[in-house]
UniProtKB/TrEMBL annotation:
The lineage of its organism: Bacteria, Pseudomonadati, Pseudomonadota, Alphaproteobacteria, Rhodobacterales. The keyword Protease does not apply. Residues 25-136 form the Dihydroprymidine dehydrogenase domain. Its EC number is 1.4.1.13. InterPro entries: DPD_II, FAD/NAD-bd_sf, FAD/NAD-binding_dom, GltD-like, Helical_ferredxn. SUPFAM superfamilies: alpha-helical ferredoxin (SSF46548), Nucleotide-binding domain (SSF51971). This is Glutamate synthase [NADPH] small chain. Residues 151-470 form the FAD/NAD(P)-binding domain. It comes from Pseudooceanicola algae. GO terms for molecular function: 4 iron, 4 sulfur cluster binding; glutamate synthase (NADPH) activity; metal ion binding. The gene is gltD. NCBIfam families: gltD_gamma_fam. It holds the Pfam family Fer4_20.
Amino acid sequence: MAKQPMLKFVTVDRDMPEKRDAKVRAHDFDEIYAEFAAAKAEEQASRCSQCGVPYCQSHCPLHNNIPDWLNLTATHRLEEAYAISQATNTFPEICGRICPQDRLCEGNCVIEQSGHGTVTIGAVEKYITDTAWERGWVKPAAPDVERSESVGIIGAGPGGLAAADMLRQAGVQVTVYDRYDRAGGLLTYGIPGFKLEKDVVMRRIKQLEDGGVIFVMDCDVGKDISFAEIREKHDAVIIATGVYKTRDLTGEGADSKGIVRAIDYLTASNRASNFGDIVPEFESGELNAAGKKIVVIGGGDTAMDCVRTAIRQGAESVKCLYRRDRANMPGSQREVANAEEEGVEFVWLSAPVGFTSGVVEPGAAGAAAGVVKTAMVQRMRLGAPDASGRQSPEVIDGSDYHEDADIVIKALGFEPEDLPTLWDTDGLEVTRWGTVRAEFGSGKTSLPGVYAVGDIVRGASLVVWAIRDGRDCVAALLEDLNAGAAIAAE
Ligand code: FAD
Ligand code: SF4
Ligand code: SF4
């Protein structure tokens, strides 16, 4: 009888690729997990029980054919595993690194629910496509027929890039506009290198360029070119601009110098530490934690990225203030554990009510020129559940104290910019949250020939959902192009 290559979860334990020692990794921006060796990837893939109804697949936003590529990996058919993996995912090696697997595919793996550790789906997905890159299996788009229609994409993040890739594969001419100097959106300038090394993103950008995607960088739509001009130039337009407006702190001293936005702090770090750019605010120390006491406010993944970046920059101390407790934070528990190992202190059930500042800097302008010295912190407890069922934080009277801070980083979440006003486009409908109103599954907006994908539609979300949106949108857009309907300029 042939040997059963799968269902080894009973005899083989779950094992992740080696995680670098916290003392070592806290000093650099390299990824913290090593790659699986081939034998280890095969062994871990072989733990899958090949479910007839795979919950891992239904809880993956891309509905990746996980059982099949696990089987093919376990049986040494890696090139076929790659073909199946990339058929549903534009950037499998990126998702394998940064998807919150514990909430998606792995969190729904049935063998975990039967008491065994989940299959390491993300790590195997990363291994398959990293190996495909090494072996030259990843190729630029080479459409059989070039089409004459062109699509303009505003925003070079994962949503825009996934759409660009699908369109080029169909032979459509694609131009991507972005206000940054490098493509990738938050993959490049938001997410730190210790989660996603930048050469992994840059090789994808090159692949798209090699496949014929034209990038127009340093081009802020609404300033350097109008939205109307883009509509005129192209047969259809996809808006993929993400969400960048930072939720602000209120209270006395909230405008003090030294209270900075997470996106500015992370962008400066990514530029200086991963690309070697000269960033004046980093050089001056304004956006550099070296030798400083850092307080990060927030409990999401952005806050986790800030605290871990501050550790790597050599901060004297790093504290994360969050108004709920550990169990009720929105960020990934895996990232909290990584941060704690690296030396971050979490101050649960605490929220700032104001800030004191020190001496006014000579030459600094305005009444807000004082530099932050402490955060005034209130301790909280969790009260009765609100309408959503989540326990609301309540202030504990008389519990206020001062937390020393040289830099306070605001990581309270992001909101959309007001695109209709910025772009002078009344007809572009938005929701009451300011996100672009787009049809579910196609991304069609209120304007003919204009589609929208990713965070600008969903609000701050995940890379894998932006990829899904980009791919779904192109399927609808191609149908419209074929029917001659997607004419952007009216
Ligand atoms: P973005 O990636 O934001 O890209 C939008 C692009 O549009 C940008 O390049 C921007 O420059 C450009 N743009 C905006 N306005 C204009 C304009 N007017 N003209 C020209 N260009 C414009 N998700 C995960 O799945 N896993 C993670 O670990 C994770 N970590 C995160 C960490 C941080 C710090 C942050 C902020 C987010 C994180 N996310 C994570 C969320 C994820 O990055 C986003 O959901 C995803 O990048 C959204 O993709 P997008 O293409 O919609 O937008
Ligand atoms: Fe899991 Fe994300 Fe990969 Fe889907 S794309 S299988 S959710 S890691
Ligand atoms: Fe395999 Fe787990 Fe998916 Fe079942 S749920 S197919 S065991 S990875």
